[in-house]
Amino acid sequence: MITEHALLPVVPGQEEEFEAAFGQARHIIAAMPGFLSLSLSRSLESPSTYLLLVEWETLEDHTQGFRGSPEYQQWRSLLHRFYEPFPVVEHYNQVMSAGPADAGAAVKDPA
Fold first, then answer.
1. Is residue 52 a contact partner of residue 4, using CB atoms and an 8 Å limit?
2. CB 28 within 8 A of CB 103
3. In this structure, are residues 54 and 34 in contact, taking their beta carbons and an 8 Å threshold?
4. pTM of the model
5. pLDDT tier at 105 (50, 70, 90 boundaries)?
6. Virtual torsion, Cα 32, 11, 52, 56, nearest 10 deg
7. Tens digit of pLDDT for each residue in 63-97?
8. 106 pLDDT exceeds 60?
9. Terminal CA-to-CA distance of the chain, rounded, Å?
């Protein structure tokens, strides 16, 4: 599994319209082979910036499958007009994760 990471700089004043368009676009990406999940979060400090995280089975599912598909053209027409500048997209392999149960596993002072 890989995680696609993109900071989406939306033109100020168009956030509400962007969120509505993303609501339509998410159905496009969710139907793609290799798609696992996505989350879209809005920055508290910079309300025109969004964080998009998409989990894919493989890098190629995103870079070749999705980006090379006719559906990607629909995605582009719905969303790309909102970005200024255009987002940088990077891909990550998870190295580590933690949850609440991990808090009890902290190193204890032997004294």
1. yes
2. no
3. no
4. 0.88
5. low
6. 30
7. 999 999 999 999 999 999 999 999 999 999 999 99
8. no
9. 42
Residue type at position 92: Y
Q: What percent of the chain has pLDDT over 90?
A: 90
DSSP string, 73-109: HHHHHHHGGGBSSPPPEEEE-------GGGGGGSPPP
pLDDT value, residue 111: 55
- CA 62, CA 30: separation in Å to the nearest integer? 12
Evaluated on CA atoms 28, 29, 32, 37, the torsion sign reads: negative
**Cis peptide preceding 85, ω within 30 of 0:** yes
Q: Return mean pLDDT, the chain.
A: 94
Element (H, E) at 20: helix 15-30
* Token output for 94: 């998870």
The 3-state DSSP composition of the chain as helix, strand, coil percent (nearest 5) reads: 40, 25, 35
10 Cα distance to chain centroid: 14
